[in-house]
Amino acid sequence: MIRIAADELGNTPTVCRSYYVHPAIMGIIESKSLPNKMYEDAGMMQSGLTASEKEAMKHI
Predict the structure, then answer these.
(1) Among 33, 37, 4, 41, which residue's Cα sits nearest to residue 21?
(2) pLDDT in tens, 20-60
(3) Residue 4, Cβ neighbours under 10 Å: how many?
(4) Using the 8-state DSSP alphabet, how is residue 50 labeled?
(5) CB atoms near residue 29 (< 10 Å)
(6) How far apart are CA 25 and CA 3, in angstroms?
(7) Is the distance from CB of 39 to CB of 53 less than 8 angstroms?
(8) CA atoms within 13 A on the CB side of 47
């Protein structure tokens, strides 16, 4: 996700991670301790997310 955001912003992943994402959020993502309640919700497919957003949610 960081690489995709960095590409969209025209930055490197390191710059994107350092300046746009709070370190606590990166720690939670890297430890895989972020709850994924939205994806577990049966109504997620009706949430209006794009296909790429749905795919990204699988990895949170």
Answers:
(1) 4
(2) 888 888 887 788 776 666 555 555 555 677 778 877 877 77
(3) 12
(4) -
(5) 15
(6) 16
(7) no
(8) 15
